[in-house]
């Protein structure tokens, strides 16, 4: 536990970031200590710990071995879908990582090169990430639920020297062959990687061989282990693509120095964990939660991390999470509210929980999407531990708003709020004109610059988009893309995105990207995709299409084709299931589609008809369409009356 209290520490982090973060930096092992915490680069962007030299893989593995902890468990792989559990000590993990890094080096990978990792939730995914870090290469992990087209976009942007993949993933009871998807993506992309390393899971998935493929196991046999390469604190550790408001994903850059310091700080102060304890983030390495809290933070901090290949339900049932907590004596857990909703739906009384000894569990953290009050309360009641809703983004890499468990005194929970700003984040709510909102008044959620260490310094290859997307809206502030308010007690409430990004089962997706796919259908004249409320996934996308004159496609046919197109172009994770045909779309007189109003109608929420609307009658048509097709709140009403 920290000796100081939150209020003191928070104040110091904002008033004196230089010294505050230099103090935190002394908690990690540098090859060369930085002389300063905060500087600006040639673009005028803030950078952390410039001049410091380190290696993130060294911090995650080697340093613990040097401190005599080589035999401690670093990673537990628990896979209900293959019914296997494997444990890796720090020594074992370091040996595998250094060998793979040696193999990659043989294949020509050097410091600064990029490597794409497209893998299921297996230890080799973590080993690949750490091997890149060891070499100073920049990894970009692409979530397995994305289709080849999405992978191709990332290949062309990141221009990887290598791709590392596996033969297959497993979705509940289905084998997903990964290798053919990688081949398809490479065929589509302009940039071609030199090699594809393929980890063979031996599950019978089709594995087409290409000339430049390298077998993972063979490479490991012939490779020599390598030591950690020294990198600058400001050198990139990874790129993680996330949905933006256009069809093209944004490459969030994470640096080495600021990231390592922030990971260490957050484990102690936000999550209230101690080294050697077991930390489990039930997410996927393809998302930021996986990067930060499956791989880097727990290992840098010297915890045991759990890598879980399964789902909260159906692998095999809603008891899985509790079994993992009990089997591996998990101290602190992190997941998305949607996972708890899925469990609650299957086991509303929490009967499964009673079958396991979960006495070690201290806290459950939830993030990735808005946490509804009933989910928060259910989890708190059934697990009998504090359930902490906390808010953050791929861009920041670690929590912005939370109830920081590392301090002696914690805040009372206010359901619906992620609690207070985390040390280092000067969170402010601004109005459209840039003035500060009153307490309780909803506005744009921003963070006054500088952002703390670990947050994005720029976008990969697109400085202009970085400035336009985050810095230009309010001079001197980072704009999060979320709306919200701060109440009289300083509690931050996030009310939702103010742009076209949606959160489907904790997965961040762009409706603009889906619209691009729907619009390509030959019978569609125009369309829109909005995120509507869903009891399980939080939000799901809904497409509304207006047909071209003369098109005579049936509604179910259009739906089936468009759903197929979105699965093929973006991936199954998009979860687009419903496509409606409308006569017209509601628009402003200047032609802007009123997506917010459409969403409000579907969710049964109050809204103000904009004065700029072209034809208010269309809103009635849309309402009737939703009613007829039982969309959103209309479906809910029918279910309730049943
Ligand atoms: N590889 C291939 N396909 C994948 C995939 C992967 N890695 N991940 C998901 N998919 C597929 C699923 O099989 C599903 O396909 P289907 O439409 O053919 O059934 C589709 O993408 C949607 O997946 P998902 O959103 O996971 O829905 P689900 O119905 O399978 O499961 C939940 C619902 C709530 C159980 C699940 O979404 C979940 O566990 N969510 C927690 C999310 C999370 O951890 N988010 C990270 C942020 S903390
Ligand atoms: P991602 O970048 O995938 O982590 O998604 C970030 C977005 O998810 C944020 O901008 C929010 O819109 C949403 N989000 C994440 N955590 C929360 C939370 N605790 N409460 C409300 N929204 C959240």
UniProtKB/TrEMBL annotation:
CDD domains: PrpE (cd05967). GO terms for molecular function: propionate-CoA ligase activity. Residues 513-592 form the AMP-binding enzyme C-terminal domain. Residues 69-448 form the AMP-dependent synthetase/ligase domain. Residues 6-59 form the Acetyl-coenzyme A synthetase N-terminal domain. It holds the Pfam family AMP-binding_C. GO terms for cellular component: intracellular organelle lumen. InterPro entries: ACAS_N (IPR032387), AMP-bd_C (IPR025110), AMP-bd_C_sf (IPR045851), AMP-binding_CS (IPR020845), AMP-dep_synth/lig_dom (IPR000873), ANL_N_sf (IPR042099). NCBIfam families: PRK00174.1 (NF001208). Belongs to the ATP-dependent AMP-binding enzyme family. This is Propionyl-CoA synthetase. It comes from Flagellimonas zhangzhouensis.
């Amino acid at each position: 536990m920290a000796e100081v209290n939150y209020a003191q520490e928070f104040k110091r982090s904002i008033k004196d970031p230089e010294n505050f973060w230099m103090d935190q930096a002394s908690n990690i092992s540098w090859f060369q200590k930085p002389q300063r915490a905060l500087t600006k680069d040639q673009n005028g962007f803030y950078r952390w710990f410039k001049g410091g030299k380190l290696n993130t893989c060294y911090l995650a593995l080697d340093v613990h071995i040097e401190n005599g902890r080589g035999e401690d468990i670093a990673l537990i792989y628990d896979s209900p879908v293959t019914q296997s559990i494997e444990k890796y000590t720090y020594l074992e993990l370091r040996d595998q990582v250094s060998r793979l890094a040696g193999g990659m080096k043989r294949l020509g990978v050097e410091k600064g090169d990029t490597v794409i990792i497209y893998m299921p939730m297996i230890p080799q995914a973590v080993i690949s990430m750490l091997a890149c870090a060891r070499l100073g290469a920049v990894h970009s992990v692409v979530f397995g639920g994305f289709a080849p087209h999405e992978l191709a976009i990332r290949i062309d942007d990141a221009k990887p020297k290598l791709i590392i993949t596996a033969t297959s993933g497993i979705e509940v009871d289905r084998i997903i062959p990964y290798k053919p998807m990688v081949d398809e993506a490479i065929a589509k992309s302009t940039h071609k990687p030199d090699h594809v390393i393929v980890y063979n899971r031996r599950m019978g998935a089709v594995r087409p061989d290409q000339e430049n493929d390298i077998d993972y196991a063979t490479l490991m046999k012939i490779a020599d282990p390598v030591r950690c390469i020294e990198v600058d604190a400001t050198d990139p550790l990874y790129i993680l693509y996330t949905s933006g408001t256009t069809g093209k994903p944004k490459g969030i850059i994470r640096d080495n120095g600021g990231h390592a310091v922030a990971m260490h700080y957050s484990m102690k102060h936000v999550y209230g964990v101690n080294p050697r304890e077991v930390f489990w983030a039930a997410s996927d390495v393809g998302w930021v939660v996986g990067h930060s809290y499956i791989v880097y933070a727990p290992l840098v901090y010297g915890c045991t991390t759990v890598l879980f290949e399964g789902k909260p339900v159906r692998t095999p049932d809603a008891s899985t999470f509790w079994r993992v907590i009990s089997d591996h004596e998990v101290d602190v857990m992190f997941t998305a509210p949607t996972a708890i909703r899925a469990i609650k739906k299957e086991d509303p009384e929490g009967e499964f929980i009673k079958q396991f000894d979960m006495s070690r569990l201290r806290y459950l953290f939830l993030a990735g999407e808005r946490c509804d009050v009933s989910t928060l309360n259910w989890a708190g009641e059934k697990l009998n531990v504090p359930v902490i809703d906390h808010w953050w983004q791929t861009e920041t890499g670690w929590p912005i708003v939370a109830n920081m468990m590392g301090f002696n005194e914690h805040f009372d929970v206010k359901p619906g709020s992620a609690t207070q700003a985390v040390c280092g984040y000067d969170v402010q709510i601004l109005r459209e004109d840039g003035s500060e909102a009153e307490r309780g008044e909803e506005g744009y959620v921003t963070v006054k610059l500088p952002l703390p260490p670990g947050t994005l310094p720029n976008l990969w290859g697109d400085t202009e988009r970085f400035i336009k997307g985050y810095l230009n809206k309010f001079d001197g502030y980072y704009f999060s893309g979320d709306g919200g308010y701060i109440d009289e007690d300083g509690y931050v409430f996030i009310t939702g995105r103010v742009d076209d990004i949606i959160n489907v089962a904790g997965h961040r997706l762009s409706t603009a990207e889906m619209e691009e796919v729907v619009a390509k259908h030959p019978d569609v004249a125009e369309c829109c995709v909005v995120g509507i409320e869903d009891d399980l996934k939080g939000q799901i996308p809904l497409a509304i299409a207006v047909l071209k004159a003369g098109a005579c496609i049936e509604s179910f046919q259009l739906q089936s084709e468009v759903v197929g197109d979105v699965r093929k172009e973006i991936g199954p994770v998009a979860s687009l299931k419903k496509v409606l045909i409308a006569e017209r779309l509601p628009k402003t007189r200047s032609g802007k589609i009123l997506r917010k109003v459409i969403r409000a109608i579907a969710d049964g929420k109050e809204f103000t008809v904009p004065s700029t609307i072209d034809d208010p009658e269309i809103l009635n048509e849309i309402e009737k369409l939703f009613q007829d097709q039982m969309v959103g709140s209309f479906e809910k009403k029918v279910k309730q009356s049943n």
